[in-house]
Amino acid sequence: MNLRLLIVFFSVIPLLSCSLPTAGGSGTETINTFVALASGAPASGAVVKVIDAEGWMDSICREANPVLDSAVVDRGGFLSLKASRSRIVNIQIDRGTEGRFLRFVSAGQFDGDTLYLDSVFTMSATVNPAEAENLSFRLSGTTYQSSAQSPGRITLSGIPSGAYTLIALGNPTNWRPLILRGLNMSFQSNLSDTLQISFENLLIDDFETGIGPTTISNLFRGITWYTYSDAGAKGWDVEKRMWTEISDTFETPGNSSIEVGSADDGRGGKAALFEVSLDRSINPPWAGAGFYLVSSGKTGVDLSEMESISFRARGRGNLTIRLETAAYDSIGSGHSQFSAIVNLTDSWQVHTIPVSSLYLIMPLDSSQQFIPWKVASESVNKVEFEFAAGDNPDDPLELYLDDIYLNGVTADVFLRD
């Protein structure tokens, strides 16, 4: 299916590197701006930090400082910083009961502008003291951190509103990052359940910060969602921070539709909702959604050590889960990919698909050479969830989706060698 081939080349996505990033160049300039309280008064004394957005994980794992520059706002609200105008950074501003956090921005866009502060919040959660021993808990892209406090509590205070990813990091001899959950800080957050500490399960998305960017994309910017059908495709634009058309000039033979929204996850949190209607006047109609697993300079990530993919889901219809690889993208049509089918029910269920149960359908007249999962999985570029007419004779079709994990691998797979 040529539409899927188009999606592969949607964007060139810069992700984290195990070496110091060079995006935006190394030259710095003076950026002058003003910082004000929500009331409009000068935010004198506010501490402003320019944080290395794309090298944050590298810095944290090497116990280095991710802050590129910092300054204190003067009595008149004036601020002067040293930064590359084009380099992608995070801006963190702290001043008591007010603050501001801006993720993945260029410092130059604020030159001569005024940054207004807003309310800050506190996040607290319960952890198993034995599991949390010697761990530090951090908010992605920031300097906010905490260690476990007796009796098994972590607290992060003074957090500006915004979307964050809570992570845990091990001791200096085992600095593997663990993605714990997404946080949408627009109110005081007291997480009701105990955080699960398992370094062998990689959370991709729990949809707590919405649908478009993923939970893990606060660390690895390009892991974002897209939708596709025989009528076209849309994707999350990381620059515009919105859904945009990505196949409006491509051949689209049908009128199937897929709508994206947010829903309750049955536990007081959020899940994604995909509503599908297939155009049965064409053969075959299709519609689905997926997320990218690509990094700058690569065609995919190495999932050869992955044991399974798991997710919570409910809905209506039979759903095909497909892991697309660079190996089969280069020789196939998009259909020849490692897949599995699950039957959705009205009740939430956890579906775990071992890699050993993935199947591959090759055309009967194919001259393509079979490539086993162990080889093809060295470069996986997308994971898709699709409704196809052959498995679903009736509309409407619905997918409520939550808590997507890649099991047996860690966030290290997204770091370049």
Key descriptive features of the protein:
mainly beta
Number of helices: 5
- Write down the oligomeric state: single chain
The overall pLDDT average reads 85
Measured distance between first and last alpha carbons: 32 Å
How many β-strand stretches?
Answer: 26
Q: Give the class from helix and strand content and strand pairing.
A: mainly beta
State the helical fraction: under 10%
Radius of gyration (Å): 22 Å
The major sheet is characterized as: 12 strands, antiparallel
The geometry reads as globular
Q: How much β-strand is present in the residues?
A: over 45%
Unreliable stretches covering 5 or more consecutive residues: 1-25
Description:
By secondary structure, the protein is mostly beta strands. The protein is built from 5 helices and 26 strands. The strands form 4 sheets. Strands 15, 16, 17, 18, 19, 20, 21, 22, 23, 24, 25 and 26 form a 12-stranded antiparallel sheet that branches. It is globular, with a radius of gyration of 22 Å. The protein starts with a helix and ends in a 10-residue tail after the last strand. The N terminus is likely disordered.
